[in-house]
Write a structure and sequence with these properties.
The chain is an alpha/beta fold and about 260 residues long. It has helices spanning about 15-25, 40-50, 65-80, 105-130, 150-170, 190-195, 210-225, 235-245, 250-260, and strands spanning about 5-10, 30-35, 55-60, 85-90, 135-140, 175-185, 230. Helix 3 runs parallel beside helix 4 (about 105-130) and helix 4 (about 105-130) packs parallel to helix 5 (about 150-170).
Length: about 260
Amino acid sequence: MERKNQYVLITGATSGIGYELAKQFAKNGYDLVMVARNHDELKIKADEFKAYGVNVIPIAKNLFIQDDAYSLYSELQLNGISPEILVNDAGQGVYGKFQDTDIHREIDIINLNIVSLIILTKLFLKDRLSKGSGRILNLASIASKAPGPWHSVYHGTKAFVLSWSEAIREELKDTGITVTALLPGPTDTDFFNKADMNESKILEDKDNLASPEGVAIDGYNALMNGDDKVVSGLKNKLSVAMSNLSTDSMAAHNMAEMQKPVTEK
């Protein structure tokens, strides 16, 4: 394995797709700055990735809080670390009809999925533009391509992530910095549990859930190729193609049927 001597800053790095992405980078010789909330879990995963012969810096931050996004980058700069790659993986959802869900939880999700993501990206760009190189991988979702009844705030945040990623990619096209969006579909992670979504019809057949490792490999390859975006998995590519052909109201209806609780008629 070739040592890159380049750091990757990756949020949501201890579980699911983020963990598998961190593993891909470690396997390929990249040093890691791993960010998550749980300090103990970070240490366990950091020790695991050090076995690949790379440097690993675990930093416990709560990216529901804006100040933690700012202080994360301040700590890196104080230690002379300029990540070559930024992976904005951390994200959550909340399940239920919007009229019934907790507004404080939804504001937290907007802060995590959008606000901290744009803060970290802004700080990354301020650092990397003068260096003329860098790569950004943003976790969007096939949820970004259709309205999402029963999961409306999450779908809305991911629509933002995709649109914004494509916009700044165009702005950065002559800078040496690339922006790639990764669009997984339903994946076998703890996401649904955290979103209180276990009663959703989308989970009736868990064999249909994608492997987080497969999604991570698709994302890693697209990032390294400098692609604008990648929809992970053939089934999800077909799903996006179908939603592109539908009216927005039809796409919303179809998504409502897929995502409503199994108890709902």
